[in-house]
Write a structure and sequence with these properties.
This protein has an eight-stranded mixed beta sheet, sandwiched between helices. It is built from eight helices and eight strands; from the N terminus they run βαβααββαβαβαβαβα. The chain has one domain: P-loop containing nucleotide triphosphate hydrolases (Rossmann fold), CATH 3.40.50. By secondary structure, the protein is of the alpha/beta class. A hairpin with a 5-residue loop joins strand 3 and strand 4. Bound molecules: adenosine-5'-triphosphate and magnesium ion (MG). Adenosine-5'-triphosphate binds next to helix 1 and strand 7.
Length: 244
């Protein structure tokens, strides 16, 4: 039986889908069988980011409505054991939380990791992505609005009984702390969210290649950071690089 993890944030556009895909790739490189579930009904992106967009026939809504078997809506993403279950093309296809609560445990039987890429906000789509999750990765960037979004998401996750919640700070620019100076130090960001840190992903323009469905170079700082986060998820003790 695998593990399910929701990648969520509260605020939109902070890098949930980027982290979901990069982490999924890193785990697949470690030999794990990984299923990405795009939960962003009507605004899906992982199909494009994984280069599976053209060949899609079925999606999550088709699985839930019984129009196809789950395996028919799951698409391999290139090399390795990385797969995608795409989000419903229309927002009307939103899958209710109660349905996800039954579906995700079933998917966990076939994968080591089921990564649930949440939509922005803390509404029904967020609950749908979160309620079948064993653990949560709360993504934020080091700005006050994003930090507040992460704190809100964290409170909602607690209500949904997702006990294991960890923070990923994305778009982190090392250097005299963040120059913009909204927080005195990294601890200020972590304290603002109320979530224990799992890892940092630096600002890395190469990660934007995901949105074009293109691979990101293995030696790019963002990919390396996501590999470290994958290792920590698997219980390895990997230090967070020093922040100044
Ligand atoms: N570490 C990073 N360095 C540079 N650019 C990044 C980084 N992470 C994400 N981005 C860029 O930020 C934008 C938003 O990323 P992404 O789509 O992953 O966010 P999201 O949280 O999934 O958004 P949404 O809430 O709309 O689902 C994209 O253009 C992406 O390439
Ligand atoms: Mg997204």
């Amino acid at each position: 039986m695998g593990v399910s993890a929701v990648v969520t944030s509260g605020k939109g556009g902070v890098g949930k889908s980027t982290v979901s895909l990069g982490l999924g790739q890193a785990l697949a490189q470690r030999g794990r069988r990984v299923l990405l579930v795009d939960c962003d009904a009507g605004l899906r992106s992982l199909d494009r980011m994984t280069g599976t967009e053209e060949g899609l026939v079925f999606d999550l809504a088709d699985v839930v409505s019984g129009r196809c078997a789950p395996a028919e809506a799951i698409y391999p993403c290139g090399e390795g054991q990385l797969f995608l279950l795409p989000a419903p093309a229309s927002g009307e296809g939103l899958v209710f939380p109660a349905v996800m609560r039954r579906l995700v445990p079933m998917l966990k039987q076939y994968y080591d990791y089921v990564l649930l890429d949440s939509p922005a906000g803390v509404g029904e789509g967020f609950r749908s992505a979160a309620c079948g999750a064993d653990r949560a990765l709360v993504v934020c960037s080091p700005d006050p609005v994003s930090v507040r979004g992460a704190a809100t998401a964290n409170a909602q996750l607690r209500k949904l009984d997702v006990e294991d919640r960890r923070l990923v700070i994305n778009r982190f620019a090392n250097g005299p702390f963040q120059k913009a100076g909204a927080y005195p130090d990294l601890d200020g960001v972590i304290d603002g969210t109320g979530v224990r840190l799992l890892g940092l992903v630096p600002e890395d323009g190469a990660l934007a290649r995901f949105l074009q469905g293109k691979p990101v170079p293995e030696d790019s700082p963002g990919v390396k950071a996501l590999r470290r986060i994958a290792g920590r998820l698997e219980g390895e003790s990997i230090p967070v690089p020093e922040v100044v």
